[in-house]
Amino acid sequence: MADFNVVKGFLNIVLKTDIYAGFLKSEWNNASFGQTSLGAGKKVMVEYSSPNTNKPLHLGHVRNNLLGVSVANLYKAAGYEVVMANLVNDRGIHICKSMIAWQKFGNGETPESTGMKGDHLVGKYYVIFENALRDQTLPVIETAIAGNWTPEGDVAQTKYSAILGQLQKATEDKQIAKLKDDIKELVRNQSALMRETQQMLRDWEAGVPEVISLWKTMNAWVYSGFEKTYARMGVSFDQYYYESDTYKLGKDVVDEGLRNGVFYSKDDGSVWIDLREDGLDEKLVLRGDGTSVYITQDIGTADLKYQQHGVDQSIYVVGNEQDYHFKVLFLIMKKLGRPFASGMHHLSYGMVDLPSGKMKSREGTVVDADDLIQEMVNEAKAKTIELGKTEGLADEELSNLYESLGLSALKFFILKVDPRKRMLFNPQESIDFQGDTGPFVQYTYARIQSILRSASADASNASWQQGDINDQLQPLEIEAIQTLYRYSEEVNKACSESSPAVIAQYCIDLSRTFNRFYNECHIMREPDPIIKNTRLKLAHFTAHTLKHALNLLGIQVVERM
RNA sequence: GACCUCGUAGCUCAGCUGGAUAGAGCAACUGCCUUCUAAGCAGUAGGUCACAGGUUCGAAUCCUGUCGGGGUCGCCA
To answer: How far is the CA of A425 from the C1' of B74 (A)?
Structure first.
């Protein structure tokens, strides 16, 4: 301790600078700096992405994927063994919509014949389906809302009358809109197009060969498209699950729960769990006809994951509109006495809003992931050319640079906000490369690399890695070292909170601290060799840490920019 | 209607396991490139931390209520 003082009841202690020098000396070249042992010996599964195979990925999926990759990286850095899983939603009515539309209007189009990315082609037919359905039902919906519609079937008739009754009494705009939507849904479900689609789903479940074959073909198109997007974003998986397999799971667990008295059946044969004592509601786990619901397969899949991988923790990266579902799922697993239940965690992230409002795929107001990435890369290129920083780089190096910068801007923009919070995506701001951005952090790294290159190019500095560390440090040097010192804690914090935002904020802190030091203290021009060597080590240490931190966010560094 | 969640500078966000004058970036305005990359740095201006109570020596932070945004309450996934 060098000094202390008391201000307003606070005891301030000033540490001697050799403490910092000692830390710098022992850690500056530690290749595993940032690696912690928080989760040593533990295994965690991170399930993320979970796309539907009827349309291309959009901005919402981008947030999901970036979070998934980054959280997996955080767990690895904290010493966990990690399994990255993708549960692909490859079956259901939404898939059949694309299939029906392609059959009707596709004229045999393929990704090859059109030059379109497979997921975009299938998505195109999903939109065509929705448009056709809208055109077909629009007039009927109007008469139905007016009360002049006759649905087919007693069930629909009863439901329609009930809604009409409520509609007459309703006063609030919101409630009226909701009831009109209900009517819309009824009409849509009775349209010829939807009946055809529902029939196709039944045929799929019955295994009708032509349907299965078309399904396989179109899904393959989608997968090849997804693969390109994943590769570009740096997304990968160790384990794939397909709902066409897992939707059958869970029924035996329902039997088990019935035997244990965790579940109970009603007169119609449907199976339920009563969660009212836990502040929730009664929840259906199996239909009266013995078929599964969403949660049935999630129960089965949870068991499957544990049997296959024996994980201690299981992270579900899923949007916050499913908060209730996961609360129920985790509670069920706990009541079933599963040992892994306490390790289940829902990483519930907020929706991404656009300045124009909400994204709706049915209405086509979505930001396509591929378009978005391309725009960011184009902007990176324009900016680099504008700044005249293309000199001395080959074409291939340049295109790698643009790719890296564009993706860095996108990833950082999305990951720097707390995952739990809803975020606004403003295209103009996201494309900014100044201030709290990915390229700003990359720039700091590239600057340091430039210094280190000239240090090793200069024969008189060849031994900078051996020399002593100066004990008498400047305030800005101390600040930089203090920031570096916090890094391991930040990694642990980010991991235990499943929040890459902690690391993103840290990247900004460290970059800003270093840049201030860089501006005030010269490195290569410093005459005292010991001070110079100390600063080179500090720069090297900073660069290494920035690289580690950026990699946690799934962002690559560039050596020059 | 019930439950969950968010509300901090014009805008986008930090800070939230209670502690010192509430921090950044963008936008606006001033400076700094014949010296290691100006995608940088320094500075000015901008906030009754939605509102009202409560707990506390002390509240942006914890509790209650009100208002406002979003979400969920399907034998959809």
So the answer is: 31
